[in-house]
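Reviewers of the previous submission asked for a worked example of the structure-prediction workflow described in the proposal, so we include one complete record here. The input consisted solely of the amino acid sequence. No template or homolog information was supplied to the procedure at any stage.
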Amino acid sequence: MSQTLRTTLILTLFFLGKTFVAPAQTPKYSNEFLSIGVSARAHGMGNAVIAHIGDVHAGYWNPAGLTQLNRPFQVSAMHAEWFAGIAKYDYLGIAKKVNANPYKESTFGFSLVRLGIDNIPNTFYLVSPDGTVNYDNVTEFSAADYALLFSYAQKMPYSKVALGGSAKIIRRVIGTFGNAWGFGIDLGTQFKSGDWRFGIMARDISFTFNAWKFNLTED
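From that input alone, the workflow returned the following structure tokens.
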């Protein structure tokens, strides 16, 4: 095999490999607002909390951690604003123990997340049919994403393993122009051995798709 042919073959295989690998590295933008995270403590740790999270925020990060609640009932709320208050991010979390038996503790959690931009001017009717500009025709609408998570976690009897899962309901609204519903499931586990803690979180194991409905009429 000549040197030129060998070089051509190597380059061809290289670029073919890049072609097949690239789709796997394509970022997923659907429901990306759920990647922002909750809890100032978790953000301060770079979101590296899957293995040791053990409070109400576990409903978001790893539902298995809900079994570590140190109180029968916990509530948490968070509010953040970006771009001089244009985008608003809100979170509300509630967790309650339903079985306090130390050998098979179980906890129920509820989380609500919203990312929205409000008071967006709708200038579709700014110009009247006769060509005049009428600012009274300018209305406002909101574009917002909502996520509702119902979580449940339980310790395995006589073991150091905890399992948890979350069922997600996604609601996306763009004024009266479009809206979508989505559903998904997350599963997580935590394991403790001495001073070591391990955690695994599988997000969107059911593939959280959104079903959109649009209204593009002038009404």
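Residues 171 and 181 are 5 Å apart (CA to CA). We consider this example representative of the routine output the project will generate in years two and three.
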